[in-house]
Amino acid sequence: MVTKSRAERVSAAFVRITDTLVADYDVLDLLHALVEATVDLLDAAAAGLLLADPHGELQLLASTSERSQLVEILQLRAGSGPCVESYSTGTLVVVEDIAALTGRWPEFQAAALSQGFRSVHALPMRVHGRTIGAMGLFGENPGGLTEEDVAIGQALVDVATISILQERTIRESAIVNEQLQRALNSRVLIEQAKGVIAYTSRVDMDEAFKRLRSFARSNNQTLNDTATQVIEQTLRL
């Protein structure tokens, strides 16, 4: 097996993301491609992505594992944490040792440590002064990413951000709001479908999502449509 160079891996990551940018692309598929490509390329343990809804409230829309999903949800409930701060300030937030946090974001700290995470990098989804979300990269060991890794991660995030805010969707703000709201509604259906698959097939939630997404891709369906079929029991995975 031929080992790919770093440059080839970076190129492949951008190709995976841009492949989702077709007419009427699925925002959720784009965001999941983003977190998966970033984790794979930067050798992070997990990632979670928060996106602002039409009311400016952050919502969890993509994650690479149930562990990172839980941490992001608890961060949202607390209203504070690296990703929340990255979104609020539009800047990179780095915590090289979560265990060393003293009095800062106690809810996030407890949640992250309980899931085995020891470091986090929060990258803002920001273009031309507008911030629409943030992505958290979690590590299982203390330490920071290299400047090159941060630059690559931010570039991947920027591509996704630009795609969401591209000209065809910002001609009217209502179009963007409708798109984000549709993604949020789809997220609820996907979580329900994951639960159905996990229960009926006796697998964990991570495996349930892999089956859901794999079927959607192989059958050229959106995650929303596939999840609906699972919930309505017209499809069993």
Write up this protein:
The chain is an alpha+beta fold. Helices cover 54% and strands 15% of the residues. It has two domains: 6-165, 2-Layer Sandwich (Beta-Lactamase), CATH 3.30.450.40; 183-231, Arc Repressor Mutant, subunit A. It is built from nine helices and five strands; from the N terminus they run ααββααβαββαααα.
CATH-assigned homologous superfamily of the largest domain: GAF domain
Order of helices and strands: HHEEHHEHEEHHHH
Structural class: alpha+beta
User: How large is the count of helical segments?
Assistant: 9
Please state the average pLDDT score: 85
Helical content stands at: 40-55%
Radius of gyration using CA atoms only: 17 Å
How many strands in all?
5
Number of domains: 2
Residue fraction in strands: 5-15%
Which features does this protein show?
alpha+beta, Beta-Lactamase, Arc Repressor Mutant, subunit A, 2 domains, 9 helices
Give the structure's gist in a few sentences.
The protein is an alpha+beta fold and 237 residues long. The chain has nine helices and five strands; from the N terminus they run ααββααβαββαααα. It has a five-stranded antiparallel sheet with strand order 2-1-5-4-3, with helices on both faces.
How do the helices and strands line up, and which of them pair or pack?
Layout lengths: L5 H13 L8 H16 L3 E7 L5 E6 L2 H13 L3 H8 L3 E3 L10 H9 L4 E9 L2 E10 L7 H18 L8 H29 L3 H14 L4 H9 L6
Antiparallel strand pairs: 1-2, 1-5, 3-4, 4-5
Helix pairs in contact: 1-2, 1-6, 2-6, 3-5, 7-8, 7-9, 8-9
